[in-house]
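Hi R.,

Here's the input for the NAP complex you asked about:
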Amino acid sequence: MFYLNTKVMFGNAALQRSVPLLAGMGQRALLVTGKRSAIASGALADLGPVLTANGIQWHTFDGVSENPDLDTIMAGKEQFLAGNCDFVIGIGGGSPLDAAKAISMAAANDLKKSQLYSTEEFRRAYPIVAIPTTAGTGSEVTQYSVLNDNKRNIKAGWGHELAFPTLAIIDPRYTFSCSYHVTLNTAVDALSHLLEGLYSQNREPIIYPLIHKGIALIVQNLKTTLQEPQNYAGREALALASMYGGMAIAQSSTSLQHSIGYPLTTTFDVPHGLANGIVMPQMMELFWDAAGDLVKDALGSFGYTRAEFLAWLESLNLQAEMTIDEQFIQDKVPEVMASRNMANNPLTVDAEDIAAIYRSLI
Ligand code: NAP
Ligand code: FE
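And here is the predicted structure with NAP in place:
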């Protein structure tokens, strides 16, 4: 089944075009963001006057750092309730957007910290507006929120229909200020979502045309955009591909490709997209028997072979600083095996497959 419950306003001046929708969203917003992105992207400068002109009060919770944790969500919940808010606006990369979703759930259902993954307790939500300032996670069109549980030292996601943003406002200009590495890593995250839309057992053919287009847009535009960060056409292509990637995983969910990357982020601070990217060739190899024909069709749609795609990927020179050893492998393979996303793999994956992929990174 294809399901997507988000109004999407995409393109130049998307925020200005969203004013009638924003005006009906509520009276008091909690603006959930990180330390720099809302300001650096220009999104806050656009949004503030629009809220004021429409009589919407807001206050800012800028306590979301990369890979948000459960304490951050609880702090956001308190601010939401203290401010008597009635909707959330997430501005930023995937971290603030995922935090905004979780804060909406926590406030609407009065969740305790121990219940932030208890999706069976999620019965209502406050409206969520998502304004992405990176082009990667596609969180603006997914029902997922990925959080760090510091106590258990794991990064894990949850998904719930109520967490689809009510409104996504995607203006590619908000990504002009992303650094070279944020642009690169987030684009590779989007690429990972698009491929996982083909790998997953729950793959949804309705979205294949958008998956094909998304992969093509990234392969054909990423390098130019890295060289020319202010290139609107390039930024638009990456923002569109990221949204298609989000639409893909909203149907299919992610798989081992994401599960295997999470411990690299929690242990070595490898940025999320990069963690997916450095295992992408190994994942393609592992899943080839089950999904190779679908990947071939996708790459063939813009005239690429698997070998040409892998050469392009290698030319991105993705590198992460990690010190993987046998202890790490022993500790983390069971964690990966236990992760929710493993159920979506297109074939049976055993502990040795995962260990072999980690060993290939040593
Ligand atoms: P991020 O963690 O949100 O942000 C990375 C860095 O980029 C931060 O330092 C951020 O600054 C900065 N930044 C963001 N936009 C900027 C801009 N326009 N100009 C300058 N700096 C900017 O990165 P992300 O890759 O977008 O999100 C990763 C998170 O999303 C991970 O936790 C991942 O697990 C999750 N994720 C979620 C989904 C989903 O479906 N929900 C899918 C994939 C991944 P600030 O300090 O201001 O934030
Ligand atoms: Fe991702």
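One thing worth noting: The beta strands are 7-10, 28-33, 57-61, 87-92, 128-132, 144-149, 154-159, 167-170.

Cheers,
M.
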